C-alpha cells in the first residue's frame, strides 16, 4: 500500500503540532466560567486566565521577544508563574523557570548560558534580581508585586522596572498567539542541580509537554475539574507538567508561595483540595501536621485527597501512614530530563487482599512507564541487555520515548552520552520484578560496596523509616579500614521523641541482613534541596570533614 500513499501528504486540515497551549484555549472556550486560580483574595476563571496569558504573549512580542528567545522566570507558585507557563510559549519563546533558592552566582550562570532576554521576577526576590541585572545588563526585568507576598515593595527602588500588571495591560487579550512551527520546537528549559559540576540546561519540546500533561491525566486518573494545591515548586520540571494538565482538565490552581504545613492543611480543608504533589519529605511534614489536627481534618468532608509522590524513593512506611490519614498515595518516578515523572506504580486489584505492609511495599516501587512513554527498562549499563526480571539482579534504569528531553543546551557530548545506544540513561540502579514493575535500589553513585558486597542505601533507609521515632533518614558510604566502606545513617527524629543508636541497630537487625547493617548512626539535620530531596553529597562531605566526630556507633559491630 505504501506506493499508493504519495498523494496523501500532511495537510493543515489533518495535522497540527502537539502543544499544551491548546489545552488552555479549550478550557476558556468550554469551561470559561469555571474557577481556574485561587490565591488569597484572587479568584479568576479560565476565560480571564486565558486572556491574561494572551496579554503576556502579546506584551513580550511588543518588547522584541521572537521565536526561540528565552524568557526566564524567578517566581514562587503565584498566578503569574502559572500564566508564564502559557504566555511565554504563546510568544514562541522558551520558558526558563529558575530555582529562586539558588545563589545569585548560579542564577547568573544560567541566565548567561541560555542568553535570556527577559526576566519575570517576584518582588520578594528583588534584591537578588538587582544583582542579576547588574551582571546581565542586557536583561529586561518585569516585576510582579504579588499582594500575598510578605512585606511591602516600592518600584521606586527597583530601577524603573516594569510592573507585571502594567506590562499585561499593554498586551492584547485577543492576541493570536503563535503555535509552534514544529512540535519538536522547544517550550521550556530547566536546569539540573549541578551537584557534581555546572548545571546542565535540559531542553523540553512542545510534543513532550503535551503528552506529559496527558500522561498525568491518564495515569493519575485525574478527573474533570480537580482542585490542585501547588505544594510542588513550578520551577521543578515545570511542576511535573501539572500546570498544563490542569488546563486540560479545567481544574483549579490553588497557589502557594511556599510550603507551610499549617497553611497547606488549612487550604486543603477550606478549598476542598483533591490533588497535590510532593517529595516524600514534604508528605511527611504534612502527615505530621494532620496528626495534630485530626478532628479538623476528618471534619472537612469525605472528598478524597490524591497525592503524587516523586523526587525520591518513598518508604512503604510513609505509604501506610498516608493511607491511614485518608490520603490516596501514588508513586511517580522520573527526572528533569523526562519532564518529571514518566513512570508510575499503577495499583493492581489483587493488591487489595494483601496486608497493609505488603501492599505498601508494592506501591512504593517505581512501577511502569506512563502510557505515553514508550519504554522503561532495567538493563546492563554496558551490554544494554535486559536484566532478569527476578527482583534481585541490579541494572541501570533506562527510558525511551516521547517523554524524553531534546537534549542538553550547548552540550552535545553530554547529550550523546545520556542517549547512548537508543536509551536515556538515568544513572539509577534498579531491579525488575516478575510482574514487570521496576524498583530503584540506589543511584549509581550512592551504592555502598562493603567487603565486596553491594548494599542498597534505600534498603537500609526503608528499614529505619519503620521505627516510629524516625522522621527522616539518609544512608551514605563511610570509609572503613577493614571493609573499604560501610553504611552510615544520618537520622532526624520526630519532635518530642528520642531514640539511641543501639535501639535503631536492634530495630534493623530484625529487618536487614548482617552485612547491610549501618555501622554508624549520626543524629543531625539533613540537608535538603528546595524540592525536599535529601542532598547525599553534602552528607558525604560531612563525613570527609568529620569522619568520626559526633557519630554514635552501635556497641556491637554489625558485620
Automatic annotation (TrEMBL):
Domain AMP-dependent synthetase/ligase: 25-409
GO biological process: fatty acid metabolic process
Organism encoding this protein: Trinickia dabaoshanensis
Database matches in NCBIfam families: PRK08162.1 (NF006020)
SUPFAM superfamilies given in the database record: Acetyl-CoA synthetase-like
PROSITE patterns from the UniProt entry: AMP_BINDING
Domain AMP-binding enzyme C-terminal positions: 460-533
InterPro entries linked to this entry: AMP-bd_C, AMP-bd_C_sf, AMP-binding_CS, AMP-dep_synth/lig_dom, ANL_N_sf
CDD domains the UniProt entry points to: ttLC_FACS_AEE21_like (cd12118)
Keyword field: Fatty acid metabolism, Ligase, Lipid metabolism
Ranges of Basic and acidic residues composition bias in the record: 535-551
Family per similarity comment: Belongs to the ATP-dependent AMP-binding enzyme family.
Tagged with keyword Signal: no
Residue span of region Disordered: 531-559
GO MF assignments: ligase activity
Domain of life the protein comes from: Bacteria
UniProt keyword Ligase present: yes
Protein name: Acyl-CoA synthetase
Amino acid at each position: 500500500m505504501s506506493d499508493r500513499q504519495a498523494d496523501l501528504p500532511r495537510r493543515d486540515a489533518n495535522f497540527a503540532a502537539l502543544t499544551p497551549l491548546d489545552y488552555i484555549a479549550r478550557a476558556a472556550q468550554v469551561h470559561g466560567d469555571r474557577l481556574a486560580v485561587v490565591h488569597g483574595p484572587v479568584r479568576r476563571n479560565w476565560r480571564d486566565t486565558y486572556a491574561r496569558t494572551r496579554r503576556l504573549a502579546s506584551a513580550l512580542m511588543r518588547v522584541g521577544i521572537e521565536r526561540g528567545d528565552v524568557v526566564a522566570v524567578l517566581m514562587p507558585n503565584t498566578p503569574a508563574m502559572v500564566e508564564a507557563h502559557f504566555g511565554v510559549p504563546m510568544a514562541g519563546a522558551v520558558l526558563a523557570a529558575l530555582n529562586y533558592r539558588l545563589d545569585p552566582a548560579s542564577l547568573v550562570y544560567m541566565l548567561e548560558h541560555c542568553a535570556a532576554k527577559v526576566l519575570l521576577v517576584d518582588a520578594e526576590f528583588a534584591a537578588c534580581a538587582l544583582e542579576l541585572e547588574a551582571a546581565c545588563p542586557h536583561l529586561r526585568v518585569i516585576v510582579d508585586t504579588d499582594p500575598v507576598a510578605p512585606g511591602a515593595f516600592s518600584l521606586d527602588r527597583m530601577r524603573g522596572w516594569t510592573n507585571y500588571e502594567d506590562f499585561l495591560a499593554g498586551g492584547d487579550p485577543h492576541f493570536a498567539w503563535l503555535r509552534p512551527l514544529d512540535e519538536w520546537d522547544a517550550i521550556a528549559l530547566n536546569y539540573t542541580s549541578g551537584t557534581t559540576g555546572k548545571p546542565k540546561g535540559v531542553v523540553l519540546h512542545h510534543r513532550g509537554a503535551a503528552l506529559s500533561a496527558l500522561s498525568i491525566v491518564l495515569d493519575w486518573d485525574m478527573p474533570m475539574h480537580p482542585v490542585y494545591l501547588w505544594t510542588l515548586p513550578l520551577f521543578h520540571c515545570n511542576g511535573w507538567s501539572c500546570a498544563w494538565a490542569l488546563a486540560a482538565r479545567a481544574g483549579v490552581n490553588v497557589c502557594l508561595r511556599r510550603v507551610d504545613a499549617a497553611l497547606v492543611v488549612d487550604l486543603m480543608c477550606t478549598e476542598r483540595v483533591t490533588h497535590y504533589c510532593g517529595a516524600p519529605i514534604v508528605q511527611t511534614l504534612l502527615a505530621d501536621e494532620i496528626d495534630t489536627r485530626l478532628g479538623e481534618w476528618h471534619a472537612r468532608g469525605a472528598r478524597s485527597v490524591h497525592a503524587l509522590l516523586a523526587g525520591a524513593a518513598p518508604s512503604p512506611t510513609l505509604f501506610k501512614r498516608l493511607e491511614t490519614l485518608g490520603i490516596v498515595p501514588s508513586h511517580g518516578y522520573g527526572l528533569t530530563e523526562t519532564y518529571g515523572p514518566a513512570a508510575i506504580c499503577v495499583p493492581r486489584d489483587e493488591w487489595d487482599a494483601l496486608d497493609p505492609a505488603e501492599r505498601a511495599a508494592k506501591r512504593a516501587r517505581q512501577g511502569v512507564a506512563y502510557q505515553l512513554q514508550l519504554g522503561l527498562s532495567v538493563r546492563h549499563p554496558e551490554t544494554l541487555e535486559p536484566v532478569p526480571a527476578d527482583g534481585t539482579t541490579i541494572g541501570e534504569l533506562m527510558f525511551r520515548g516521547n517523554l524524553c528531553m531534546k537534549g542538553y543546551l550547548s552540550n552535545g557530548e553530554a547529550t550523546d552520552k545520556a542517549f547512548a545506544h537508543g536509551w536515556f540513561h538515568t544513572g539509577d540502579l534498579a531491579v525488575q520484578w516478575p510482574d514487570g514493575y521496576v524498583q530503584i535500589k540506589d543511584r549509581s553513585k550512592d551504592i555502598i560496596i562493603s567487603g565486596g558486597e553491594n548494599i542498597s542505601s534505600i534498603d537500609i533507609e526503608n528499614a529505619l523509616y519503620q521505627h516510629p521515632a524516625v522522621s527522616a533518614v539518609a544512608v551514605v558510604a563511610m570509609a572503613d579500614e577493614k571493609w573499604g566502606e560501610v553504611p552510615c545513617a544520618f537520622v532526624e527524629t520526630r519532635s518530642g521523641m528520642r531514640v539511641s543508636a543501639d535501639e535503631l541497630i536492634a530495630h534493623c537487625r530484625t529487618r536487614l541482613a548482617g552485612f547491610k547493617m549501618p555501622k554508624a548512626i549520626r543524629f543531625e539535620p539533613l540537608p535538603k534541596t528546595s524540592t525536599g530531596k535529601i542532598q547525599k553529597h553534602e552528607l558525604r562531605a560531612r563525613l570527609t570533614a568529620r569522619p568520626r566526630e559526633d557519630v554514635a556507633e552501635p556497641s556491637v559491630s554489625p558485620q
